[in-house]
């Protein structure tokens, strides 16, 4: 199983030291375009190319990145390999904002919505094919959207097990911030690292995981010894 590092937060390349997990490959493509969305799309195309090749070769890659937006490239790559996956999304936040509903304009808060709508290179995904797990820090607009959406909801201890191919996404901020130093958007009241790692193992034990994406939206260079243990436990 290959581990691929994509050391970006949005279109900003981060130091490799921010991701203390051994990896087989690092993707740092030259980003093209005059605006942020063009640059992001060029990054996700490179990620999709890599993931498609890995999946076609029978690999189940683990992708480690600096934000949740990279999931669009991961899912697009799986789709290019001829697989239509569902997504299980472990995150303290909903990530279902749009540019119109977001009060901060932070693109990471739109990552799941972009994925469902096919905004960044993926084929649009039916809402019922997404399961949002342990999203406990939601803005009113996200609450309103989720109240009528077909997105499934779950808890870390009760993650529904997939019956078909799945991209498993884990934002490390799903873990209680007392165990994760330097989170950009800490959300108290989360599960422990071991509880999240157990959930990841349960889903992977089904044999249906085609890619695991671990998003690390945290400050560079803070508590790397703790982070190394955390990433090793989640990545297995």
From TrEMBL:
CDD domains given in the database record: Arginase-like_1 (cd09999)
Record's keyword annotation contains Manganese: yes
Domain of life according to the entry: Bacteria
Name of a matching Pfam family: Arginase
The keyword Manganese is assigned to this record: yes
Keywords per UniProt: Hydrolase, Manganese, Metal-binding
InterPro entries, alphabetized: Ureohydrolase, Ureohydrolase_dom_sf
SUPFAM superfamilies per the UniProt record, alphabetical: Arginase/deacetylase
Family: Belongs to the arginase family.
Designated name of the protein: Arginase family protein
């Amino acid at each position: 199983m290959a581990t691929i590092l994509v050391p970006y937060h949005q279109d900003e390349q981060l130091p490799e030291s921010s991701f203390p997990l051994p990896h087989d490959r690092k993707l740092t493509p030259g980003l093209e375009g005059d605006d942020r969305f063009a640059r992001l799309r060029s990054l996700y195309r490179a990620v999709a190319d890599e993931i498609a090749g890995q999946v076609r070769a029978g690999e189940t890659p683990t992708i480690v990145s600096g934000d949740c937006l990279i999931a669009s490239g991961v899912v697009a790559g799986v789709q290019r390999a001829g697989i239509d996956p569902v997504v299980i999304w472990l995150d303290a936040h909903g990530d279902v904002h749009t540019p119109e509903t977001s009060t901060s304009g932070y693109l990471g808060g739109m990552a799941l919505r972009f994925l469902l709508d096919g905004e960044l290179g993926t084929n649009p995904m039916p809402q019922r094919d997404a399961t949002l797990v342990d999203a406990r820090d939601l803005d009113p607009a996200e609450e309103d959207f989720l109240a009528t959406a077909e997105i499934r909801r779950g808890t870390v201890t009760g993650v529904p097990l997939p019956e078909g191919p799945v991209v498993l996404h884990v934002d490390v901020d799903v873990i209680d911030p007392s165990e994760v130093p330097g989170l950009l958007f800490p959300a108290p009241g989360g599960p422990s690292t071991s509880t999240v790692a157990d959930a990841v193992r349960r889903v992977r034990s089904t044999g249906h995981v085609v890619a695991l994406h671990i998003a690390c939206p945290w400050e560079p260079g803070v508590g790397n010894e703790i982070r190394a243990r955390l990433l090793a436990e989640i990545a297995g």
